[in-house]
Fold this sequence. Notes:
Number of helices: 14
CATH class of the largest domain: Alpha Beta
Low-confidence stretches: none
Strand order of the largest sheet: 3-2-1-4-5-6-7-8
Number of domains: 2
Bound molecules: nicotinamide-adenine-dinucleotide
Number of strands: 15
Largest sheet: 8 strands, mixed
CATH superfamily of the largest domain: NAD(P)-binding Rossmann-like Domain
CATH topology of the largest domain: Rossmann fold
Mean pLDDT: 96
Distance between the termini: 63 Å
CATH architecture of the largest domain: 3-Layer(aba) Sandwich
Strand content: 15-25%
Amino acid sequence: xxxxxxxKEMFINxxxxxxxxxMGYVGxxxxxxxxxxxxxxxxxxxxxxxxxxxxxxESYIQDVSGEEASEMVQKGLLSATTDYSExxxxxxxxxxxxxxxxxxxxxxxxxxxxxxxxxTPHLHSGMLIVLESTTYPGTTEEIFPPxxxxxxxxxxxxxxxxxxxxxxxxxxxxxGPRNTPKVIGGITETCTEVAMAFYEQIIDTPxxxxxxxxxxxxxxxxxxxxxxxxxxxxxxAIICHLxxxxxxxxIEAASSKPxxxxxxxxxxxxxxxxxxxxxxxxxxxxxxxxxxxxxIDLATEVNxxxxxxxxxxxxxxxxxxxxxxxxxxxxxxxxxxxAGIDDLRESPALDVFRxxxxxxxxVCYHDPFCPSVQIDEETxxxxxxxxxxxxxxxxxxxxxxxxxxxxxxxxxxSKMIFDTRNVIRSFEGKGKAKIxxx
Length: 438
Ligand SMILES: NC(=O)c1ccc[n+]([C@@H]2O[C@H](COP(=O)([O-])OP(=O)(O)OC[C@H]3O[C@@H](n4cnc5c(N)ncnc54)[C@H](O)[C@@H]3O)[C@@H](O)[C@H]2O)c1
């Protein structure tokens, strides 16, 4: 029997063993999903502390609960290792390691290359390898075939290679890895078929495309679409401020149009490991082809300028009260890059924190999800949110709109609040605090 048919049969019977390389925000939920669908999963992770936690049935990722992890470990469906030789015994590998930008803003594929180096000695016939890390179009086709062919295997016959972008939205309670459709493109047609056959067993809606490059491009288009629309609405916030109209009112009223309009919301900047980073992958690839990605470049310029604009507004608002930023006490409410999660990566609130500190502000923060944060050389701890702490502040800036914050307490005891997320609109005019919106 051909390997492709053998694998499909093993997927249907749930006999295939799954290896997930990189057990982070993406890898752990995918491991849990595969295990909960009845596959035996082994997480391959270089961080020993994480490996020990997984094997004890504990979770360090918000989207997988300790109970869920523990149930899978007890059933013998989930374990973890640091040992790449374990990949000799798996039929499916998902690669979910980081793909950051380096200091010059170019893609850093170092993690993916190091996975390939360590995996190569353990390649074997009858395996499906899926890269899930976000990357520039053309990556999978460029870097996998040379290694696999050099190791003596035929792609689409012995080993099946596909790219399937991860669409995980941390903290989203309506759409998780199982009910979010997933795009899949293989190097050959058979690769796509084999990959589809696997994902059909674990998710509700796999969506096939014709190539790995198409699948890579889909992910970048989705996130570039968001980055550009957020750039547009951030610029709209600046325009509305100059025109002395309320940007939130404009967005709400525009949203009454039942067709041809999608609301996006402004904020202190773009954060997270994806939306600010992914368009740069496309821009980088296009630079190599001597094409300038004007929309991406402009949106990046607007979005990265937002923390500075927010700080300028803070200066303006303090000024109106006759206070300089220097020695003003400022509390940032929410540091994570978006509401409801603990992820601080690329968070614009951190830029606001640093910029205000550099201008001499005495800055502290409260974030129910992030107990501590590294600001340059200093480890800063989240303050308790109580009336005494709030009363001491010259200004409270709502930088992330977490829902589990007692905003009434904040409104009741603040002198001035600058709400960059429009979360305390219902308190407007109700307390003594002067409330300003982005
Ligand atoms: N976080 C998100 O919301 C999200 C959403 C969609 C796509 N993505 C993409 O998914 C990929 C992974 O992102 P993440 O947020 O899960 O990263 P992460 O940093 O949370 O997790 C990556 C894990 O990989 C491990 N690792 C690094 N090198 C390794 C190696 N050689 N072998 C084994 N383990 C290794 C790290 O120790 C870490 O635990 C990235 O390409 C990212 O762009 C992330």
